[in-house]
Amino acid sequence: MPTSGPRSAETEGDPLTFAYRVRPAAILDVTGPDRVAFLQGQLTQDVRLAEAGRAAPAAGLTPKGKLLFAGRLVGLDDRLRLLLPPTVREQTRAHLAKYAVFQKVAIEDRSDDIARLAIYGDGPAIPLPGALSLPGEYEISWDVLVPRSALDGARLALDGAGASELAEEEAEARRIEAGRPEFGTDADETHLADEAGLADAVSTTKGCYVGQEIVARLRTYGRVNKRLVGFRFPDGTVPSGATLRRPDQAEPSRVEAGRVTSVAVSRRLGAIGLGYAARDVAEGERLVVAAADGPGAGAPAIVAALPFRA
Fold first, then answer.
1. How many other CB atoms are there within 10 angstroms of residue 226's CB atom?
2. I want to staple 214 with a disulfide (CB 3.0 to 4.6 A). Which of 31, 65, 66, 287 is the partner?
3. What is the pLDDT of residue 14?
4. What is the architecture of the domain spanning 26-109?
5. HSE (CB half, 13 Å, CA atoms) of 62?
6. pTM of structure
């Protein structure tokens, strides 16, 4: 299994340059002769590009263009595989099964059979039996799938090669530094793909798919009212879910200038977060937590570009 990859900005000068963690995931396989045509009509990504061993971001939308799920699409020799957050496992399986009834496809839930490992930074090549290694995304150098039965052996091999097992708090800080939105935390069924920073998951050249008309109309004639941004919190973290307003905005107000969705304390950057800012809120602008959010009221949040820079 190759684990060396391009070093990200997040790990420069970091003592944990070679690390790993078990990455919770729902893993759904679509098999059958109609699998490409079927998913081509369900996903935002051009499924025809999913060659064996290749991964690409992808999402499923409602007819109104709102997100149903978001993750990665992986091409295998005899199937197409979706790597998704575990929180959408059942609803995504049921959604795909509903539309697969009249097509020659089957939906297989492999979540209990396969483990997902995130590899961070640079490291030696390590052979892991049965592993499928995919190029990573954002802060993750490699996305590795191993049989669940081989997980303990994979962890021992990584430990023996000098990798550190990354704590969840550190993994979350790196995710936020990289600006990687997590479906269910930073994006949900109320968001459009372009609002949630998922433009790379949307093909601009493929044919029709559920929600495509809304996406095309928005990109041709309109623009989103909010977008995913980073926040720096100079006075310390604020509550996840906090509503943000402009400092000169009267309280109480129904107008949101922004909202925080994820927070962490980065060893490089201090208190940071992800969330949304209204389209007229500029990078570098100072917002504050609204009074309705209690003890954190008035705490500053500085809008930052993604990914974060030191």
1. 20
2. 65
3. 52
4. 2-Layer Sandwich (3.30)
5. 10
6. 0.91
Q: How many Å apart are CA 302 and CA 81, to the nearest integer?
A: 39
Q: Would you put residue 128 in left (φ > 0), alpha (ψ -120 to 50) or beta?
A: beta
The fold for domain 225-304 equals Elongation Factor Tu (Ef-tu); domain 3 (2.40.30)
How many Cβ atoms sit within 10 Å of the Cβ of residue 282?
A: 8
pLDDT tens for 241-286 read 999 999 998 776 667 999 999 999 999 999 999 999 999 999 999 9
Q: CA-CA-CA-CA torsion for 305, 86, 67, 91, nearest 10 degrees? A: -170
- Across the range 285-295, mean pLDDT stands at 83
Angle, CA of 111, 113 and 118, to the nearest 5°: 70
C-alpha to C-alpha distance for 270 and 290, rounded to whole angstroms: 22
Higher pLDDT, 128 or 118: 118
* C-alpha 73, offset from chain centre: 12
Domain borders along the chain are: 9-23+113-178, 26-109, 225-304
Would you state the structure tokens that stand for residue 273, as one six-digit string? 């977060």
**Chain centroid to CA 273: how far?**
14
Tokens representing residue 246 in the block? 């402009």
Long-range residue pairs from 161-165, CB within 8 A, at least 24 positions apart, any chain: 161/3, 161/18, 161/123, 161/124, 161/126, 162/18, 162/123, 162/124, 163/3, 163/18, 163/19, 163/20, 163/119, 163/123, 164/16, 164/18, 164/19, 164/20, 165/19, 165/20, 165/21
